[in-house]
Amino acid sequence: MNLIRMKGVNKQYKNGVTAIYDLDLTIEKGDFVFIIGSTGCGKSTLIKMLYREEKPTSGKIIVGGLDVAKLRNGKVYKLRRKLGVVFQDFKLLSKLTVYENVAFALEVFGLPKSEIHEKVLKVLDLVGLKNKAKHYPTELSGGEQQRVAIARAIVNGPKLLICDEPTGNLDEATSMEIMKVLEEINKLGTTIIMVTHDTNIVSLMKKRVILLDAGRILKDYEKGTYTHEGI
What we know:
Layout: E1 2-12, E2 18-28, E3 32-36, H1 43-50, E4 58-63, E5 66-67, H2 76-80, E6 83-86, H3 98-107, H4 113-126, H5 142-154, E7 160-164, H6 172-187, E8 191-195, H7 199-205, E9 208-213, E10 216-221
Parallel strand pairs: 3-8, 3-9, 6-7, 7-8
Antiparallel strand pairs: 1-2, 1-4, 4-5, 9-10
Helix pairs in contact: 3-4, 3-5, 4-5, 5-6
């Protein structure tokens, strides 16, 4: 079943630069998809349109049944509730503990404290950080901070997790730890879209790979068939 459907999507910025050209893309529920390509190929623009940080100039984008392109600004929260986003730079709140950073994502929905407590501990256990709940971000390694960011992104049970270079600031061993966490989340049913420059990770994971070039899909590799061609 389709979770994402993009049809005839174009994105041109006000400075005249066209980042995405007539793009068609379908992603099924439960997929794990890498989006790769050289700097400036349109990767970031593509995923920003999925969580409505950017709007397409033309074309249709359907995410979880919502027509993202037509979504009014006041209704964007309906989309954001369906997905989580993980960034390269963690974006954790330094004055809050690990527990509080994750709980913060639920408090905005006004859930009871008992429900928040249960969900936060469950998700911290999933990412292997239940024992660090009372620590502050500065007391954690880079890999641990990224795992907190992942926990925060999935604590509300999103159907879709978008990861923008989540291993970009991490060493190879730590990056693979993060990938194992993401694979476990995917096995539980969450669809994952990950932008990365790390061709080693892409080759090892053997997932679907979409190669962008100058705003167009150059190749769409099936699981396990990716080579370093084109990068």
